[in-house]
Amino acid sequence: MLVSYKWLSQYVDLNGISPDELADKLSRTGLEVEGIDTPQEGLKKIVVGDVKECVPHPNSDHLSICQIDVGEEELYQIVCGAPNIEANKKVIVAMPNSRITGNQKIKKGKMRGEVSLGMVCSLEELGYSENVIPKAYADGIYFLPEDATPGTPVFSYLDMDDAIIDISITPNRADALSIRGVAHEVAAIYRKDVCFGERKLVEDKEDNITSHLDVTVLNPEEVTNYRMRMVKDVKVKESPQWLQNVLMNEGIRPVNNIVDVTNYVLLLFGQPLHAFDYEKMASQKVVVRRGEEGEQLVTLDGVERALTSDHIVITNGEQPIALAGIMGGLDSEITETTQTVVIEAATFDPAITRLAAKDFALRSESSSRFEKGVNLQTVEEALSFAASLMAELGEGTVLAGEVVATEDLGKDEVVTITQDKINRVLGTNLTKEEIHEIFLALGFEVALAGETYTVTIPPRRWDIQIEADLIEEVARIYGYDRLPSTLPKGTYVSGGLSNQQQFERNIRQVLEGSGLTEAISYALTTEEKALHFVKNAAPLVSLQSPMSEDHRVLRQNLITSLLTDIQYNVARKNTDLAFYEMGNIFISQGESDLPKQMKHVALAMTGLWQQNSWQVSKTAVDFYLLKGILENLMSSIGLDNKVVFQPTQAYPELHPGRSAELLVEGEVIGVIGQVHPLTGKAYNIPETYVAELDLEGLFNKNRQGIDFQAVAKFPAMKRDIALLVSSEVTNQQLLEVIQKQGGKFLQQVELFDVFQGEKLGLGKKSMAYSLTFQNQEATLTDEEVNSAMKQVELGLVEAFHVEVR
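The line above is the sequence of Phenylalanine--tRNA ligase beta subunit; the predicted structure tokens follow.
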């Protein structure tokens, strides 16, 4: 909300209060000020000019040579390119060595051989946005009033010496979306009176509106106020300078004297109005109803809108002529030919208005106020004010009476509260008199019985309904900065992480230490993606009102979120990626219960793991790299000897020959594998490897702590063994036998070679292992190691019929 300091001072005495001080006070009492703008800042030597002569430039088909009176003895010759420049007009002149917007300096010069002593300026060159420049001057220069004195600074004529305060209005303070609302607030802060005055409405007693107009509202509960007035014999023309200045400083483009009055009243009262051309309505009947399927309305912006029963429309009894609370129709627009104006003042259902504005992407100043609420007490006053001002500026006459289809004047809200409750909540020691004075400053009626205040709140403050609202008002006006500061009381305990939190933090550290980067994704996804990479899918948890089709259900896996992240990066030529995400998946527990949340961690890797350099060759991500990271993770949490990787084909989104489940104590705790080529093609990503683990399942397992041991004093001994086995036998199966048969001195088993070929025979492979033996208490002998190796060989032969090579 842009608030003009000059305009505000018409209703509240601001003498001795600077704009900066006022802004600070407003911010301290809950109306946050985002900034103050004085339009004339940075501009200098810009004056009123009187064009005495204007002739075409001899060397140009679009330039004019003007002789302009700028308050000095001699006329200034200025070359101007504006198409609307003409003699006997007051214009804006930037003198030599002046500064216009953008700190641009204007100098004497020549244009096509003719001397130009300055520049005739448009409003845009003074810093006005093109969105607020009056339509008549959008492509040319701006004309000042005829009584402007040549040579005087233009700033006071355009109210550019005003201070425009930009206030950020929270949704609960919609009463401050008007100059009158802000005036009430300022008056309460400074303990001053507001004086809005009264505009006298002169009516034509011989001509009543009821003879020309009949209004019906079919759904009164959706349109609680609907009233109309008529002004006849108006002349549609340019608004006076003061009105244009007000609108431009408030960020609204002046159009004409009729439309500008509706916008002026919108800003003053916070009451949206709409003006119809009576003759173009083609009917003496107005019906307010829901739209019908198939109906069309061309709005003021020239766009044809398809209406439905979700929208409220204003009709002439048959055809829609306006979209209620949002925008009028093009067919009933106010133009230069308009002679009779019908003015509408109403209040529309906030929810319906908001949905319609969203449907048509037509959020406006009017719709935003209808959505948040308007002061029901001033609907009639705003309408009468607008009719009177239109008649004055348009030289017309207001017809007697008004048509009232529905009316809701609002009602006072009565809230009781005690002095003790206020002081206890705020931590203050306010006296009864101080509290009483604050309520009166806010314009509330108040009665005191003992320690209990009975406060009557007028309809203009519809945000106040309960005790807490009154306490907030007392705190605001008393001053948040004056409230006492106290430290919390009670027993102090040192903070710390729970075992589960520390467990999750350790996992993050291990994964990041392994070179992965954390990703954070939406928990909402599509129905298809939610069920990918899930072995036993549960019923989906769907949202009733999703943001979009891509965010309709809660996920049951994290892998698809990471694949979406990889897709995004790969599309932007970032191809070497290693991500992990720790987050919740959601399992439905039926319609009556909330979904179950389970904490998972997922990993995804693609591209190169090691770039090519003079030291090392490039290394691509593969299954065993990701498996190694998981093994390192399991080792760090005390599960390194309990994890089994078991091949699986239960996940269609994974490559059937390059995927495995992770088992801990026989329970599936996660999955690892290469993304199936078809799945990768669907995501448009290269070869990618993923894994996902159930964190809660890992946390609940019987994990071994770290057992610190002294460095062994006795040497270790190594033995290698090469085995010829069936290609169906896995490394995991061989390891289990070796570790079982190796005896108590076997410390480590490492696979260092795998070979398959025709020389070995069909269905055969060679696997070579290195076994490390060590005794912590004595030096091992060859006999002890040989004996252990013999047991290993016997066990392997018995279990898998291996051939020791």
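Note on the example: The chain is about 25% helix and 30% strand. The longest strand covers residues 44-56.
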